[in-house]
Design brief:
The complex is a heterodimer of chains A (392) and B (160). Chain A has 392 residues and is mainly alpha-helical. Chain A is built from 17 helices and eight strands. The radius of gyration of chain A is 22 Å and the shape is globular. Chain B is globular and about 50 Å long. The chains are: A mainly alpha (392), B alpha/beta (160).
Chain lengths: 392, 160
């Protein structure tokens, strides 16, 4: 009589579909996954600890290195949390908020493009990978013109932006978002009706709405299970309540549903960017909060008060009132939260990041146990994890 | 500012367990006794609808008594409402009952809290290090853990 034995294999940390340095220990009965145990932490840099030893402004460059595929979103979540801590949220100029929305949505598209590219590549579709990276390059060019960096943007500041938009960039963004929905249609044309794609994604990595909430899924991963929740609409920040957009929700809870939800999100992001560009008016990009925001350069070089302010903010930073705040934003991968505690000093007493990828990855074992080994690949892809954010 | 609705219900149900209620920037923080945390968490989830545990973390108030706080950032997906619950934890008894039976997502959060802050969670199904190597000594997020790593002098000032 034939006997079977459970085989334990290591998947990763160098497997291409483990997206960085995720190690999965899989216990297999033939091709059926009996148990999956994720091992993380290979990239741990101690960002939270470092933040306790830097001024509030000096923490910003640490945040865009968390989810390096969506750096502006990470910057945004952090500066919003500090602004809430300082009580200056209402002072942020309209132009700064609109630019933040434009860049947050471009970042969403940029992040989803990498997700789609690598997800499709994991499953075996090469062409989509090349198309998505071509479009992502256009967003990176916009990033570079605005922030000076292609990846680690560091453009948002507590109180607004580091600088105004460069001349001509609005037209470039407008051209991009005009073309993008058609390009999303192209990706859909390659994948959605494809029988191999459907076989690899429909019914794969299923999770019910109740289980998804319980395990802490958020963002498109949660909305793919039928939970209609989006922080941009439900707990608006940066004036998101003024924009007209839909929150794509699918009820199937499988890999295909999450794929469709993210594609629809890209289309909705284009709508939001267009509306923000329509409403973008000339004006200041930094709050009128001289103890927090750097003075204009002309004041620094022409007035002693400006020079002193600049010197004090750069060398000592600013102090925040004693208190604690939590600010969550709808990042491309889900709820990105920053919990800040101030003891009255010039740096966070404690900063805890709520990284969506970390929590989403926790759902992987229950999504893959009992399914085929090949489905593990598809399920990792559909969770859209970034290990820099998971390990911090 | 009027009292948060959930706080009133918590006070009614767990009168002896609510230690402090604080409001800051429109956010409510309730500090409760750690012995009651599982009962309170269950009540918040089942009766008050806080079905989403956004985040759980530890805070080290070195030099104060009690030294630690475990913080639970909760969210109610139906009412879009947030609430923060904290429990004080003494240094010589740095253990809290796990809430992973209430919200499954607490599993990894508690492992991280144990790993980095050294606060243990009783009855946790799989309490082991998550970000640091299994044989790592110490808990890096504690305030008395050297910023520049073990066997180095405590950091005295800013890096830049």
């Amino acid at each position: 009589m034939a006997t079977t034995e459970i085989m334990t294999i290591n998947m990763g940390p160098q497997h291409p579909s483990t997206h960085g340095v995720l190690q999965l220990i899989l216990e297999l009965d033939g091709e059926i996954v009996k148990k999956a145990t994720p091992h993380i932490g290979f990239l741990h840099r101690g960002v939270e600890k470092l933040s306790e030893h830097r001024t509030y402004h000096q923490v910003i460059p640490l945040t865009d290195r968390l989810d390096y595929l969506a750096p502006m979103s990470n910057n945004l979540g952090y500066v919003l949390a500090v602004e809430k801590l300082l009580g200056i949220t209402d002072l942020i100029p309209d132009r700064a908020n609109r630019v933040r929305v434009i860049l947050a949505e471009l970042t969403r598209i940029k992040s989803h493009l990498v997700w789609l590219a690598t997800h499709a590549l994991d499953i075996g579709a090469m062409t989509v990978f090349l198309y998505c990276f071509r479009e992502r390059e256009a967003i990176i060019d916009i990033y570079e013109k605005i922030s000076g960096a292609r990846m680690t943007s560091n453009y948002f500041r507590v109180g607004g932006l580091s600088a105004d938009l460069p001349a001509g960039i609005e037209q470039e963004i407008r051209s991009f978002v005009a073309a993008m929905p058609g390009l999303v249609d192209t990706y859909e044309g390659l994948l959605t009706g494809n029988r191999i794609w459907q076989k690899r994604t429909i019914g794969v990595g299923k999770i019910s709405a109740e289980d998804a909430i319980d395990i802490g899924l958020s963002g498109p991963a949660l909305r793919g299970s039928g939970v209609d929740w989006d922080l941009r609409r439900d707990n608006p920040y940066c004036g998101y309540e003024e924009y007209d957009f839909n929150v794509p929700v699918r009820t199937e809870g499988d890999t295909f549903a999450r794929y469709k939800a993210r594609l629809d999100e890209m289309r909705e992001s284009c709508k939001i960017v267009n509306q923000a560009l329509d409403k973008l008016q000339p004006g200041p990009v930094l709050a009128d909060a001289p103890k927090v925001c750097l003075p204009p350069k002309k004041d620094v070089v022409n007035t002693i008060e400006g020079l002193i302010h600049h010197f004090k903010i750069i060398t000592e930073g600013f102090k925040a009132e004693v208190g604690e705040v939590y600010q969550g934003i709808e990042a491309p991968k889900g709820e990105l939260g920053y919990y800040l505690i101030s003891d009255g000093g010039n740096h966070p007493y404690r900063m805890k990041i709520r990284p969506p990828s970390f929590v989403n990855l926790q759902a992987l074992p229950q999504m893959v146990e009992g399914s085929l080994l090949a489905d593990v690949i598809a399920t990792i892809g559909t969770l859209d994890i970034v290990l820099g954010e998971i390990d911090r | 500012m009027s009292e948060h609705a959930a706080v009133a219900k918590l006070k009614e149900r767990f009168a002896g367990a609510v230690l402090e209620v604080a409001e800051f920037r429109g956010e409510t923080t309730v500090t409760v006794k750690k012995e009651e945390i599982v009962a309170i968490a269950s009540f918040l989830k089942q009766d008050l609808g806080y079905n989403f545990l956004c985040d759980l973390c530890g805070v080290d108030y070195l030099g104060q008594t009690p030294r630690f706080m475990v913080v639970y950032n909760l969210y109610n997906i139906s009412s879009k409402d947030r609430l923060r619950v904290k429990v004080p934890v003494a240094e010589n008894d740095a253990e809290v009952e796990t809430v992973s039976g209430v919200w499954a997502t607490a599993n990894w959060h508690e492992r991280e809290c144990w790993d980095l802050m050294g606060i243990s969670f009783a009855n946790h199904p799989d309490l082991r290090r998550i970000l640091m190597p299994a044989d790592w000594v110490g808990h890096p997020l504690r305030k008395d853990y050297p910023l520049q790593g073990p066997d180095r002098a405590p950091y005295q000032g800013r890096l830049s």
